[in-house]
Structures are given as C-alpha cells and as structure tokens.
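Lecture 7 notes: from sequence to structure.

We start with a single chain of 367 residues. Read the sequence below before looking at the structure.
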Amino acid sequence: MAIQITNQPTNPPYPAYNNSIIEFTSDAGTPITADIIVNGYTFEQSADADGIFHFNLKRIIEVLINQNNFSDHIAIDNPADFLFLDQTLFLDVEIEIIISFADDSQESQTFTWPYIKSVIQEGEKQFNNSQLKLLAPYANDICHLTYFEGYPFDISIYSDIARLITITNLRTGLATDLNLLKGVNRLFISNGENDNLGFESQLPLYLGINELEFKANDQIYFTLLLNKRSPECGNLLKFFNRQGGWSYWNFMDLHVEKTKADTIDRLNSDFNNVDKSRGNFAITGKEAEKSRSLLSGLVQDHEKKLISQLPTSPKVYLYTNELASPFELNDFIEVEVDGGTFSTSNKHQQSVFNLTINLPKIYTQTL
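Now the structure, written as tokens:
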C-alpha cells in the first residue's frame, strides 16, 4: 500500500512564507515514526494516537529558499539582453517520507513540490493558474503596473515548465516571442536608458496604457495593462513584493531629508584652571542617521494596492543613478521603510502615499 497523504497545500506553486502542513498515514501496519527528508535534510516525526503524522515544512522552506537574504544580484551587462532566470525566487523541493512500523518494516514515497518566495494574507485568493503567472498583485487575470521611463523596470514571470510565450501589444497589434525557462523569469522592460535596445526594440511601448497579452499554445494566461509614464526625476524605490517578485515606484523629486545625530560619550577634560581652560569635556564622537520623507504623487486604486506593500517589504532599494542611464548593481542602495500613510482625495478619487525611509548609516569619525 502507498503512503496516504490526507492534507497538503493547494494550488501550486506554494507560498514559501505560509504554513506548508503535510498530514499522512499508511494502512500497511501500525505507524510509529517517520523520517521526512527535505532536500537532503532529515527530520523525525512521531505518529499521533490515530497513526497520523503532522509536519509543517514552513521553517525549512524559508531557510532553503532564502539563501541570499532577499538581495537582488541581477544586472544587465549587454543592453540587448532583457530576460533572465532568477534562481533565488523559486525552489523545487524534493520530499521523501519513510514510515517505520511496529513490526520494523518501512514504507517510503518521494514527491516534489514547487515553491515561490511569496506570502499570502488571510482572506486573499491564491492564483488559480499554476502554469504561467505574473508575480504582482492582480485579479481576474488582469494586472495594472506603472513603468517610469528612464528608470530600470522589470516584471517577474513564473512558468512551471520551459515554454514559448507570445506577448502582444493590443494597442499596436505588434507581438514578440520569448522562451521562458522553468522557474521565475525576470523580463526587463528597461535597463534605465530612454533609447532602450532591449525589450522595446522587439515590442515598442507608447506613453499611456499598453495592453500586453501573454499567451502560450493559443491560451491567454493574463493581460498586463502597463502604463508607461514620461521621464521625470524622482526617488525610485525597488522593493520585494508579497507575490515573490520585484516592484518599482518613482516617488516625487520633492522630498524632506532629516539628519539625526547623537553623542556617543562625553569624557571629563577639566584639568586646567579656568583662565587657561578651553572647555571641560570632550566627546568620543557622533553617531548619525539620515531619513527622507517621500510623496508618491496621486495614485489610482490599483497603484495603491501595490505601493501599500512597501512598509512590510523585507528588502527595499533606493535608486541613486541619473535619469536615463543604464543601471549597475551598486546604483541600488538598501534602505529601511519607516511606516507610511495614505491621504485620499474625495474630489479626485485618488490617494497620496507619504513614506519615510531611513538611509544607510552615516559613517563618522570617532575615538
């Protein structure tokens, strides 16, 4: 008899940062213990009084899938390249179960589960499609994203197998084919240059809404309504979203920057008569930090849905390069988001997001 799995996650690929509980048993004897081997790591579990095993893979998956601490290391060396497989965002997990019975016999079963570096909230619906999906917030197979021309921008696409897809811009009728690999593919719409030699050389995008249809084997999997905005200086943030991909938003150039400094320690230097004294204390140095308050500008509801993820994102970068310049990895510096609030205009039915980021630590001279 085969091992009977009575409960497991549904709708693969599974989110790595939610519970991943597996329950199993066997009627081949009286189960006593089970070894659960996850990508070569062995964990022992005892059966309950009914002979059922319960095991949560969540903590193991979190460690296995996040070896890079959410960092992004993909850069574009050749302007003509724009599609990259990001192996840090997807993981096939091999799970072997070995049940030991009271009569010293054993039974085993091996299977593979796919995981994405994502998380789902209570009440949220998982993606219905398990074959091809865009890793960004959307509903009813339609996604809205905003692309700020002159800045880097990419979208993350999950494919369960290597496949050929066709992207059609319904606004122009033009189409292009792309070969996706199994896993999460990063499609760079722009590397930061205005005259992009990459994706837009094959599928031009125009200012305003571009309706991009993603199709494979004559089946439409999703439609991306990509709003291309004209170049404008600002504060571009790149952040890891809950769906397991990277997202971008260009905050207004107008911002407020604050520097906070504290004395590390004071030393007594009162060693002279007052008429020869230049002071009676000395400091060992200062520690300082800088913060920047940003405004999103007016945003629509679907844009609000995206940038509201910023305060809980585990990795946020601030872009420091000039507008309309190809990016390098060091152009993105890590920052910390210190909360944010939305202000909604009833007149315009739009919102403004006010966000504060803590910039990298200021290096100071100290004793």
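The domain at 233-367 is CATH 2.30.110 (Pnp Oxidase; Chain A). Keep this in mind for problem set 3.
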